Amino acid sequence: MMSEAGIRPSDSLRHVRYEIRGRLARRAHELERQGYEIVSLNIGNPRAFGLRTPETMRLAMIENLAEAEGYCHQKGIFPAREAVVMQQQARGITGVTAEDVFIGNGVSELIDLVLRALLDEGDEVLVPSPDYPLWTAAVTLNRGRAVHYPCRPGNAFVPDPQEVAQLVTPRTRALVIINPNNPTGAVYPRAVLEALAQLAERRGLIVFSDEIYDQMTYDGAEFVPMATLVRDTLCATLSGLSKVYRACGYRVGWAVFSGRTHAAAEYLNALELLASLRLCSNVLAQWAVQTALGGHQSIRELISPGGRLHDSRAAILTAVQGSRFLRLAPPGGAMYAFVGVETGALPGFDDQQFTLDLLEQKHVLVAPGVSFNVPYRNHFRITNLPDAATLRDVFARIEELLGAYAAATRESSRAGGTASNVVGASSRFK
């Protein structure tokens, strides 16, 4: 019988957060239902900004519709897995076969599966901070402990391998690398990746390399596939169709295993068991993989000068440079900017209250930095998917709100109050 208090959720969710689609997003939907036009920049959803999946991929699915009516192998259809193998080989990664590839319903499902097959109660996983919060959530849900290694703003969000090494304990099972990074856009230098690979090999850690933005780099930034560096331990490369191929809704991702796969047979068998329990991933969309990876890479036009993503990123950089309050380590890749706010100019700044004020007052939805498991409260993430004109307008609204915060601080100071919380002082500007 249900108690008067209602149905209590699982305790396993107590420390699980995903604010990108949380309270702020729900409030944005409420405002839209009231008739307000909200500029939603909280998630990287290319279709929402008019960026289409390549037509050849759509045609590939239509032509194979009859082949998609039944279940497929639990690891995925062979043409899709073989296409992933060919991409890996073209990048200099040897010894990989279709048997080493698992297709999933997006990288999100695979993150859960690879961790569920690995972790026991209390096992530790090294996760970057800031991180894509699904990694921390999936570690927690699978009974592990996420140990965050810092990627500091002062170092352009690039980790220090020596700091990472100091966090390894006998309970550490894996090292997560997100490169190009979400939320910061950092593209890690080869020397840093080499040091991380050596650390993983020395300590026997599995490397989970999230490379969903692998071809999305700017201004000559070099993307180095982690699997080209990891040889003496197991490396899982995770990628998919969602971002580079603008096909988020297709829900197709893959995990390809390289390195010491022969020593990981028991683990990979466990992963196949989990893949079997969910029967298979979306069959129809898998037919787009071979065409996507083997066809024209239209992402190159988008990230080159004159391309949509290149020019939108440039608009963000220009807006931040012209701001009295903002700073930014220029993102070398991905489709985001992790923007910092100068707390010297705005003492007491709080990212969660700021993002709520920005939504309520300026009708712009962004993600607060604290959503990405950082210890500081003066950042927010914004996507560069909109066109440059939209982003210029958005940053003008941001500057107006921050200017109101600054004015409230000055007024409070003249009145003899404190400036410890400029966000709270700004409530009169709603």
Corresponding CATH architecture of the largest domain: 3-Layer(aba) Sandwich
N-end to C-end Cα span: 45 Å
Q: Helix share of residues?
A: 25-40%
Query: How many helical stretches?
Result: 15
CATH superfamily of the largest domain, by name, is Type I PLP-dependent aspartate aminotransferase-like (Major domain)
Characteristic terms for this protein:
alpha/beta; Aspartate Aminotransferase, domain 1; Aspartate Aminotransferase, domain 2; 2 domains; 4-stranded antiparallel sheet; 15 helices; disordered C terminus
Description:
- The protein is α/β, with parallel strands linked by helices and 430 residues long.
- The chain folds into 2 domains: 170 residues, Aspartate Aminotransferase, domain 1 (Alpha-Beta Complex), CATH 3.90.1150.10; 240 residues, Aspartate Aminotransferase, domain 2, CATH 3.40.640.10.
- Helix content is 37%, strand content 14%.
- The strands form 3 sheets. Strands 2-8-7-6-5-3-4 form a 7-stranded mixed sheet, with helices on both faces. Strands 9-10-13-12 form a 4-stranded antiparallel sheet. It has a two-stranded parallel ribbon with strand order 1-11.
- Helix 1 packs parallel to helix 13 and helix 12 runs parallel beside helix 14.
- The longest helix has 27 residues.
